[in-house]
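S., here's the first fold you wanted:
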Amino acid sequence: MEFMKNKIAISLSTILVLLTISAYSNSFESIFSGHWAEKHIEPDFYETYFEKHVSSLQSEFLLNGAITKGDFYSILGCLTQETVTIPLTEEEKNKPLLRKTAVMWLINAIEDEERKVVYDEKENMFIDIKGLEKSEKESVLRAHSIGLINGYSERIFAPNDKVTYAQAMILMQRLNNKIMITENTIPFVTIETIQEHTARQEGLFVSEKEDKIIITVVQRFNTSGYQLEVANIVKLGDAKYAISLNITKPDPKHMVLQVISFVRTTIEIDKKHVDSNYTFEVLNLPKGVER
């Protein structure tokens, strides 16, 4: 009898160990440890949208392996909170996804949220997309114009390469950020942007004027010629708002003054668009910018 109790105890212990190993094998740490994508993926995003798809795959094999069309499309539907009818046969669902196809699906999803993405074909830097179909080429240009995709280099996109699981996670996370920004963006009006050479305090300054909130961002630069603008304002949570900036370096073809300069940009927000006890922060305000 004692032997049976010990045997049962050992069996239960073995099951618990196996369950623990199984649960850990899919954890963010075990999957991403030492992989280049580790610093690009948020653990919560992986756990929410990808963890259930990797139960039988491990580490390098998973992250560097090609994602299937079926997996990518089903995750895309979950991400956009829509019931997606996959127009693929069972055989097609198991085929690897190409980069040009992934981009078409992504841009279709984001254009459902933001209507049409405007792009300038003259800004096309990729030399290997000229032979693509018109819809494929336009999708690549649209996605690149809003920072949804990058090439392998400035000139190479590699449209016919397979999308790896690691690349798919990064693409999906970027899409998720675009959708979140669309849903939570706060409208504003730029009042003025001024470049000065008089010393000023850098930072974020907030005041009120009647039914408006006035926000000024001041940034120091080491030369003249920099441009600074507010890109968007996004609600992060209850009464918390994040300001993103666009900073453009001087044109290298133009001469600039080698003097400290300050760029001051001021925007205006209607109070009705924010909570009464609001707080603002700048997400990407650098402490001085080097050329």
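And the second, which I think is the more interesting of the pair:
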Amino acid sequence: MDKKQLTFMAFLFSISTIIAAVNTIITGKNKVFTLILAVITLVLHRKSKK
């Protein structure tokens, strides 16, 4: 994948991570799922900056 695709994917994952985090705060469920999304987002951001 090129840099533009990685940046776009990181952007999408960050949006979904924010939504999942808000959902976790409200319901108190899906903590592991939110954590996994956050890790994926961090990895994608790191790759897109290289």
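Why I say that: The two ends are 13 Å apart (CA to CA). The first helix runs from residue 3 to 27.

Talk tomorrow,
H.
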